């Protein structure tokens, strides 16, 4: 049975909630049961932000993500807070541009990627690169499996479709 318990954490303004919503929509579009729980402080930017996403072939008993199979940490406080919660054998994806320390655990898989600088270099959004990498690490689907979701999310701003797909593909290949 395929089951993903994903925790995405960072600062407000980094696209944490967007990544979570996107993963939820992609899961739904690909026939999975899904749940999404956002959590953020009162600040619009700079405050704490995280979300839990469950994607499963079976009905989801609880929407809470307490022991994630996959953690995305976009800042050091998020890695510090959530690293210990990842299940052994799970995955931690983090932005090595913004997190200077190496993770402490040796029973999980780490993916240290300079998302911020890569996004600048490619002229795309870092959160879409992260989303692509998350698709690749989890094996949820290939970027083509997310195409209809991206198209639906950019229907009011069609000029964003190609840049978002470019970023998703690039992240998937990292």
Short summary of the structure?
The protein has 174 residues and is of the alpha/beta class.
Protein model, in words:
- With 174 residues, the chain is of the alpha/beta class.
- 36% of the residues lie in helices and 23% in strands.
- It has six helices and six strands; from the N terminus they run βαβββαββαααα.
- It has helices at 16-29, 76-82, 115-122, 126-138, 147-153, 161-173, and strands at residues 3-11, 33-40, 48-56, 70-73, 91-95, 109-113.
- A six-stranded mixed β-sheet has the order 2-3-1-4-5-6, sandwiched between helices.
- Helix 2 (76-82) links the parallel strand 4 and strand 5.
- Helix 3 crosses helix 4.
- The longest helix is centred in the first third of the chain and has 14 residues, at 16-29.
- The radius of gyration is 15 Å and the shape is globular.
- The model has no long low-confidence stretch (mean pLDDT 93).
User: What structural class do helix, strand and pairing data support?
Assistant: alpha/beta
Q: Kindly report the average pLDDT value.
A: 93
Alpha-carbon Rg, integer: 15 Å
Q: How is the main sheet built?
A: 6 strands, mixed
Q: Reading side by side through the largest sheet, how are the strands ordered?
A: 2-3-1-4-5-6
* Percentage beta strand: 15-25%
SSE order, one letter for each helix or strand: EHEEEHEEHHHH
Measured distance between first and last alpha carbons: 26 Å
Shape: globular
Counting H and I runs of at least 4 residues, what is the number of helices? 6
Count of extended strands? 6
Which percent range fits the helix content? 25-40%
Poorly predicted runs are none
